Amino acid sequence: MSETPPRVVVAEDEAVIRLDLVEQLRELGYDVVGECGDGAAAVALCRDLAPDIALLDINMPGSDGLVAAADIAGLGTTAVVMLTAYGQRDLVDRAVAAGAMAYLTKPWTASDLLPALETARIRFAEMRSLSAQVDDLSDTLRQRKLIDRAKAQLIRAYGISEPEAFRLLQKKAMDGRTSMAAVAEEILGP
Predict the structure, then answer these.
(1) Alpha-carbon radius of gyration of the chain
(2) Which residues are CB-contacts of 49 (< 8 A; sequence separation ≥ 6)?
(3) Which of 7, 25, 39, 189 has a CB 3.0–4.6 Å from the CB of 30, allowing a cystine?
(4) Structure pTM?
(5) pLDDT at site 1
């Protein structure tokens, strides 16, 4: 069973460059699901299509690539690769601050394009994984604090030890086939 090709949106205001990019992407095995010539349209396409990668020119009419990059990065669904004729450090820093995962300067070659796109995809996947881990850890910490507060309330209310309060929470959770956090919430009330 073959893996589905990565889905890409291309935003480049110069039609000839955009056509060249689309052709190269397809030759490299990417599925170009949308193309446009301005940042606002790129954001709309990414919102509607949730591609794996958005390849954005920095200088476009209307909403430029940096604004679009920030908006697309905020969606949390798409890796952003910036494309520009300018390689100044300041512009690279602004692109990274806007959420770009990779940066490609014009003129590029197909051998430049593939590493930039794959680096962006991998970095984006790693970022999403780390974000999910942080969310899980935050939830675990929230539950732990909730259980600790419920134990403290049981200790005060019944004059029992901490291990006894823990076992009481644990037994009530098992008997009710629910989590200890849910029992703690019930004990603590609204």
Answers:
(1) 25
(2) 7, 9, 33, 34
(3) 25
(4) 0.72
(5) 47
> How many residues appear in the chain?
190
- List Cβ neighbours of 116 (8 Å cut-off, separation of 6 or more): 81, 102, 103, 104, 108
Task: Give kind and range of the element (H or E) at residue 81.
Answer: strand 79-84
- How far apart are alpha carbons 71 and 65 in whole angstroms? 10
The mean pLDDT of 40-67, rounded to a whole number, is: 91
Q: Judge residue 81's burial from the number of C-beta atoms within 10 Å of its C-beta, 0-12 exposed, 13-18 middle, 19 or more buried.
A: buried
Cα dist. 18→15, 22, 25, 41, 69 in Å?
5, 6, 10, 14, 17
Quick one: DSSP state of residue 19? H
pLDDT digits (tens, 9 = 90+) for 134-144: 888 989 899 99
| Helix pair angle (180-188, 110-158), 10° resolution | 50
Q: How far apart are CA 67 and CA 40, in angstroms?
A: 9
